[in-house]
Design goal:
InterPro entries: Sperma_CUB_dom_sf (IPR035914). This is CUB domain-containing protein. Keywords: Signal. There is one protein chain. By secondary structure, this protein is mainly beta. Helix content is about 10%, strand content about 60%. It is built from one helix and ten strands; from the N terminus they run H-E-E-E-E-E-E-E-E-E-E. The protein has one helix spanning about 1-15; strands at about 20, 25-30, 35-50, 55-70, 75-80, 90, 100, 105-130, 135, 140-144. The strands form two sheets. Strands 1, 2, 3, 4, 5, 6, 7 and 8 form an eight-stranded mixed β-sheet that branches. Strand 1 (about 20) and strand 2 (about 25-30) form a beta hairpin.
Amino acid sequence: MILFKYLKAILLILAYKFCIVSSDECVIHTGFEGTIAESKYANQFEMCWKIIVPPGSFVQLSLESYTSQYDCPHSTLTVTVLNRDEPYSFCPSGSTEMPIIASDDVIINFKINYGYWFTSSFKMRYKNRQVFLSYHHNKGFAKN
């Protein structure tokens, strides 16, 4: 019984050490930076990741690559910033140059939905940054 408690504690520590915790819905990322990537050969597949943005911080996401044998709507990648109305949607044939910056938690959803089996993959990097306030003479506080 005691061994089980120690083993459970060690596994919990290891999960947090790698800054990734699996939940029922999405894989949770709590680290200050990391890579989210998936490559799948399937006809039906859906997976999501949630990036936790600490208070007083913002996250910058950069889509490095997104390739697929079939384009939207059969392979889709969406980035939803919590407390924002519109998600960012990406298609394999679209541009990957524009970064996304958000001060709230972010959910990334990767979906394959087609009658035929095919390969689709993406790679996205993220970095959490601190927001610092500095005092400027005659201007008051400003974000840096």
